[in-house]
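Researcher: Batch entry, complex prediction.
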Amino acid sequence: MTTETQKGTLFTPWNIVAGIILAAGVVVTIMRFTMGLGSVTNLSDNNPWGIWIGFDLLCGVALAAGGYTTSAACYIFGFKRFHGAVRPAILTAFLGYALVVFALNYDVGRPWRLPYPIFYQQGTTSILFEVGLCVFIYLTVLFLEYLPAALEWKRGFDKYRDILVKLTMGLTILGVILSTLHQSSLGALYLIAPSKLHPLWYTPYLPVMFFMSSMFAGMSMVIFEGTLSHKHFHHKMDDEYNLGYEDLQMAFSKAAAWIMAGYLAMKLLGLAMDNRWQYLGTGYGAWWLVEVVGFVALPCYAYAVAYRDRNLKLARFTALWTVLGIVLNRFNVSLVAFNWQLPSVDRYFPSAGEIIISLFVVTIGVIAFRFIVTRMPIFYVHPAYKDSSH
Amino acid sequence: MKRRHFLGLLGAAGVTLGSGATAKAASLGDVKGLPNAGGVLFDASRCIGCRKCEAACNQVNDLPKPAKAFDDLTVLDVTRRTDAKTYTIVNKYVPDAGKPPVFRKIQCNHCMEPACASACFVAAFKKSETGAVVYDPDVCVGCRYCMVACPFNIPAYEYDKAFTPRVMKCTMCQPRLLEGKLPGCVEACPKEALIFGKRRELLNLAWDRIGGNPGRYVEHVYGEREMGGTSWLTIAPKPSFAAIGMDENLGTTSAPELTSGALAAVPAVAGIWPVLLTGLYAISKRKEKIAESEKQAAVAAAIAKASADAEAKLAEELAKAEVAGKRRIEVEVKKALEAAAKAGEEGEDA
Amino acid sequence: MFNTLQDLMLHNKSITYVLMGVVLICFVGFWHFLTDKEERKRRY
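Model: Structure tokens for the complex:
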């Protein structure tokens, strides 16, 4: 990441690292699209989904949940104080979803057919159809929600901007509906494979758990991303943003702690519902406890303490902790606990090419974010639109 | 199972609706279930591991030639699975050390309710009337969710193709079935370990064999109920199906039933969320409005009080002014009278 | 009649998805009908 003091030179450490990742990404991209998936991935007939699904799709979508949680808090639940945080959250979500779709082009065998399930032949019995449809519509919704910022930047489009601003309420509600549906459906994807997913992770509650965890994932991401942005784009922020910022971090710490408590309850009740207790004593059980205690229960408690003591530092640290916990959970469901019965030689581990593309995608996201926030009214209200309710 | 789906639905939607369970109940009467579909019975106790079925499959499906010839039986020493170039394989198992091995042929089991078809978001898989589960590569996007969904790990993918990768799996020789021929592997089997026929009749045959040879077979027809049933049925010599690498814990719930709860939650969310969210919005808006009007009322009251005070003061001032005015008039009148009196006195004097 | 539960669900869900779209659009219209006399100029 760059700071304003480094503006003069191109060869900052961050730029060099980003440059290397981008160059490697381009090479792997060319290989992927000329020689096929097999040339760059460790995917196999037993392991058809690797980190391009486990990380790029599952984590990408969960961590982009800040868009719907923040806009719902502000516009639906009436927390007007958080208004300044809505635009950064929407931008993060929009970029997140755009990159999810971008990364899917690498993963599917014939990416030029990606519109098929929606426009050509609909496999409506598939949970993946539901995910695809929702992600497609939600990406459009996020684009429309983000668009006013771009239109204010370029000026001269006030008519369209005003129409979009009028649609805010409808888009927010539609966004929450679509998010509820596809966040939960990402978990529901695995309902069809009870024989492959370890019983500690396989539960009929999978959709609920993915949905609940997306809420605190999104909030944690807003806290985490806000903290980073404060470090690097402070000069871009106006008083409205700065005034609401600490309040928002505290409110989201409180909300996340509370939702995590519910999530923990579901984890526990899920075990009881299907009588999975005996698995807790196994190696997988220990790993499950690491995830649930180490990356949900403890951060839940830490968030609560941070809120009670108004300890911003702890809240920010816990946000990162929770984000890592979400990544761990999605990895566990999609990779670690998936195919758990196969002998170790048939198990999956990502190849260098897969890791490079995942880093490539994240890097593009950071660059796009930096490009936009340094130019468009994201962290501040554009002087010409001070009186706007948006 | 119903309870499980109901609860899954409950959770997923976050609402108390029983539509998942009712949708299933209503469906049973509408589904015929292909009673006359074809199938194959595989008797593992008859298989000698000659790989003639593999060779026939390779030939009738125009698949690429393998590295090792089909009469090379050393291939059997390693456990294999189906892949993009092989629709069927035979594996060797030794359930009891010292006793002769048991061979098992692996290929698509052609589920009665295929998980691949349920999972496919372009509906590329279809259970055909012949019993075969067939795949249409012309719509396939290559998401490979079918491979995630398949409980038998059958579909394979052409990972080495950049432009036309396909999912590859046994078709039960659908083109041959439509011509009235037998599947390639069945035709090639020298020991009649494979028998093609109507699934319903094959089930009877399987149970007859189990009943007619007491102690020889595991008392179970694999595929009769697994994952909702499969067109390809297997009977195996004792001790167990697990001993020849078959998953005995798949359960009897078919793939569409596994996801029906979550799918039923989707319309519930679309129906209830807008009402709930708009309601919450209206409530917060109304609270805001009440707070606003309370504020306004308070301001108005303050203003009213202030102006009332002011008015009272004004009236007081006016009253005061009036008194002062009166006094001033009185003084003036007095003065005038005094002046008049003085003038009279002066007149009298003159 | 359908051969498999899968075919039946494909049929049912396809209709349901279309209706879901219709329902969502109708909600918007009805909400406006319900509230448009409250305040002529409502700011969202």
